[in-house]
Design brief:
Order of helices and strands: HHHHHHHHHH
Strand content: under 5%
Number of strands: 0
CATH topology of the largest domain: Arc Repressor Mutant, subunit A
CATH superfamily of the largest domain: Winged helix-like DNA-binding domain superfamily/Winged helix DNA-binding domain
Radius of gyration: 18 Å
CATH architecture of the largest domain: Orthogonal Bundle
Largest sheet: none
Structural class: mainly alpha
Length: 189
């Protein structure tokens, strides 16, 4: 069943339709939350908040548009709100400590990848690469995370971030250029 039929049933009061909609999109949304927030409990909270916001505003969903893009935008905004709260709470925290925590989390994600290229990166190189990723603005970071950590294709990223494919490609190229500046000429990104 397509998302619009679930939504129509939800608007008629069918709670089972809401459960099916949640199950359908859980893996993508939860994966995105975990990757961006670096804390599984916090990711779970943002995931829950995303669905709460979506269900409160489900009547604003425009039929004919992509529900996945709509829910992903809510999720992205929820994550941005949480990141702003974290920054406000940790203003006095050493930025090197924050960066180290971020790097450790992403190293664990890279270690789960099975490609030979990623496995050959030594720990220092991974730290340099992840430092470059974390130096990117949030919107560029989202594209890099979806493309390289979640192996999403441009055609999949485009609706998730409400951008055209060409814009996603352009912004990914911009992110790579910024990362190359951060990493220096010795790196191939």
């Amino acid at each position: 069943m397509c998302d619009e039929k679930y939504i129509a049933k939800m608007l008629d009061g069918d709670i089972y339709a809401a459960n099916k909609l949640i199950k359908k999109h859980k893996a993508d949304l939860m994966g995105f939350c975990r990757t961006r927030l670096l804390d599984s409990d916090l990711a779970q909270d943002c995931y829950q908040i995303t669905w709460e916001k979506a269900f409160r505003k489900i009547h604003t969903f425009k039929l004919g548009s992509s529900f996945k893009s709509w829910i992903f935008k809510i999720c992205q905004n929820t994550i941005y709100d949480e990141l702003r709260r974290q920054r406000a709470r940790t203003r006095g925290t050493d930025s090197a400590t924050k960066l180290q925590l971020d790097i450790e989390y992403y190293e664990s994600l890279l270690a789960q990848q099975k490609s030979t290229e990623q496995l050959t990166l030594d720990k220092e190189q991974r730290a340099e690469l992840l430092t470059a990723v974390f130096s990117l603005p949030d919107k560029l970071k989202d594209i890099v995370v979806l493309r390289f950590f979640h192996s999403k294709k441009f055609v999949e990223i485009s609706p998730l971030l409400s951008m055209s494919e060409s814009t996603v490609k352009y912004k990914l190229n911009k992110a790579i250029i910024l990362m190359k500046k951060e990493l220096g000429d010795d790196w191939y990104v």
